[in-house]
Amino acid sequence: MNTRVAIIGGGPSGLLLSQLLHMRGIDNVVLERKTRDYVLGRIRAGVLEQGLVRLLEEAGCAGRLHAEGFVHDGTLVAYGNEIFRVDFTEHTGSPVIVYGQTEVTRDLYDAREKSGGPIEFNVEDVAIHGADTDAPHVTYAVDGTARRIDCDFVAGCDGFHGVSRQTIPLTVRREYEKIYPFGWLGILSETPPVNDELVYANSARGFALCSMRNDNLSRYYIQCSLSDSPDDWTDEAFWQELKRRIPAEQAGRLVTGPSIEKSIAPLRSFVTEPMRWGRLFLCGDAAHIVPPTGAKGLNTAASDVHYLYHALRDFYDNGSSAGIDGYSETALKRVWKAERFSWWFSSLLHRYPDQSEFDLKMQIAELDFLRSNAAAQKAMAQNYVGLPY
Ligand code: FAD
Ligand code: DHB
């Protein structure tokens, strides 16, 4: 098979790039290791920046998002006996949209299917060849049958555990990593959200977050030990712990119910450089991971897609390689800023096992400053709603 862009990975990055290129008449094929149902079963991010919303509009996939997503103009931050609100719209002119990654992915799959876009599921043994030549190709197998795609470019959108990043030789690749000494235990429950905006809480018992997907679907997280397993936590134990970590007013009106999903995510900051090797480009989690605090993972994947989409358009429409040549540097500038914000927001809100009394005082002083300082709130709001592309 021949195509212009072979896209490895059918998560949000790969699908969004595929649909955007398709809208501009640039042929592409998506190779996904799992099934569509498996990908849609993964509960992940829930907060979308305007940049991602605009890309979904351009991809013709924002109808349901605008009809069903929630516009959030601000968020609450709680610590000790204090609670304050950061108003995104007041400080930046922009809200965020609460709409689950699962729904974004479903909308993109529907659009690709409607336009007959080729997506191969259940692919195995994907390998990228000749990325440092002008004629790369990708080999893989489906049901034990070997296949090959010849292409102009390869987009590595295959997440943290994919093959694309590993294809870049270690002599070229440099990786930066920070592992956090705790995880997030998350549950999804068919209950009304406790608050109409998100609540981020720094409590003496550890971090908690109250989020949502719709009027009757809530998403809650609590900081947990890395050695915990979801089976260690009954629903009852989860709700008890959540109530002890959030402000009394919210705890008093929290509606609990059975969880329909429960999972633990480790927290990691990770960046690989460069994000391009020859004709291979990394996008999203294949190139970088952020701790989830601040919801930057999916949104940062989207900014990579934006840069790569424009670079490829420039190549095919105008014969210019400038976007392609600058892709890694341009994308990484924004990636590092999202890394900084996620690291800062995580550091502000979690309890660390080795935290000294001094460290704790610093955390509280920073929260006091944020609560009472408009400039600090503005800086937080600018990062939360998303830095410009
Ligand atoms: P992925 O979503 O990882 O998609 C990559 C795709 O590539 C997958 O479908 C995978 O099956 C496929 N693939 C992998 N290897 C191969 C291969 N060899 N061949 C073919 N296909 C392959 N972000 C937030 O902002 N907020 C959150 O609350 C949040 N929670 C998260 C919880 C978890 C458990 C995880 C893992 C991530 C979470 N994130 C969160 C991050 C966010 O979900 C990611 O940033 C986002 O999914 C990145 O999209 P992606 O398409 O780049 O990668
Ligand atoms: C969600 C996850 C986050 O990491 C975050 O900062 C906000 C919301 C969520 O899953 O809803």
Class computed from helices, strands and strand pairing: alpha+beta
Topology-level CATH name of the largest domain: FAD/NAD(P)-binding domain
* CATH superfamily membership of the largest domain: FAD/NAD(P)-binding domain
- Physical arrangement of strands within the biggest beta sheet: 6-5-14-15-16-13-17-20
Number of domains: 2
Mean pLDDT over the full residue set: 97
CATH class category name of the largest domain: Alpha Beta
What does this structure look like?
The protein is α+β, with helices and mostly antiparallel strands. The protein has helices at 12-23, 36-40, 50-58, 63-68, 88-92, 101-114, 164-167, 235-245, 248-253, 297-318, 322-349, 357-372, 374-385; strands at 5-8, 28-31, 47-48, 70-72, 74-79, 82-87, 96-98, 119-120, 124-129, 137-142, 145-150, 153-156, 174-189, 199-203, 206-214, 217-224, 259-273, 276-277, 280-282, 288-289. Strands 6-5-14-15-16-13-17-20 form an eight-stranded mixed β-sheet. A hairpin with a 2-residue loop joins β5 and β6. α12 crosses α13 (374-385). The longest helix is centred in the last third of the chain and has 28 residues, at 322-349. It starts with a strand and ends with a helix. The model has no long low-confidence stretch (mean pLDDT 97). The structure holds flavin-adenine dinucleotide and 3,4-dihydroxybenzoic acid. Residues 8-14, 31-34, 39, 44-45, 101, 123, 126, 157-159, 161-163, 265, 284-285, 292, 295-298, 301 line the site of flavin-adenine dinucleotide (FAD).
